[in-house]
Amino acid sequence: MLWGKGYGLPLPHNYKPQFMEQKEISIHEALPILKEVLNMSGLTKLMGKSVSWFFNKENERVAPFSLKTWGFAEKDSDLINNSLSRIADECESHLIKPLAEGVDRKEHHVYAVSQLKEIRKLISFVYLREKHTTISEQSLSRKLRSAPNKGSICMFTESDISQINEGLKAVARQLRSIKITL
Predict the structure, then answer these.
(1) Are 39 and 124 in contact (CB under 8 A)?
(2) Which long-range contacts (CB under 8 A, 24 or more apart) does 119-122 make?
């Protein structure tokens, strides 16, 4: 018999876990979405490929002195799907912990900036900021550049951190919700 999470109650016989269904979309339909959400150089680096490799595959370039095209193959879509899953995991692992009692606000800001600079290599901050936060471009830029140990007063607020965390969770959900096919 299944038991309810943490409550010691039996689950109904028709219980199904709440897994997000993956929507299968072709690689050419997915590319505009990926370019908007991700930092493509980060994606290709994670895949062990170059940006030019991606560009050639996307545009199905013909290899010089050959009739062979460089379009996407099934192994490429599998590689991209695995990379998207890894990026989603990274988004969730880089959530910023809220300021705990007894922790210096400046130290917490340095921690938040380091987390964001790491994840910035993989996802587009323009997308994150525009779609999931109310933080202005200038404010986000200033907060990422500020150095509290040099007397800067421009630090992330709890509201900023909450919005960024929700945005990272939304990006992770979005990346997990698609399955790229040929």
Answers:
(1) yes
(2) 119/90, 119/91, 119/94, 119/168, 120/39, 121/39, 121/42, 121/45, 122/38, 122/39, 122/42, 122/43, 122/46, 122/87, 122/90, 122/91
With tokens 């062990």, the residue in question is 48
**Angstrom distance (rounded) from CA 179 to CA 161:** 29
Q: Cα separation of 147 and 161, whole Å?
A: 17
- pTM for the model stands at 0.77
Distance CA 66, CA 58 (A): 18
- pLDDT tens digits, 12-61: 444 444 455 788 988 888 888 888 898 888 888 888 988 888 777 877 75
What tokens were used for 63? 């290899």
**Six token digits for residue 168:** 């990272």
Euclidean distance between CA atoms 152 and 106, whole angstroms: 10
Measured in degrees and rounded to the nearest 5, phi and psi for residue 65 equal 60, 30
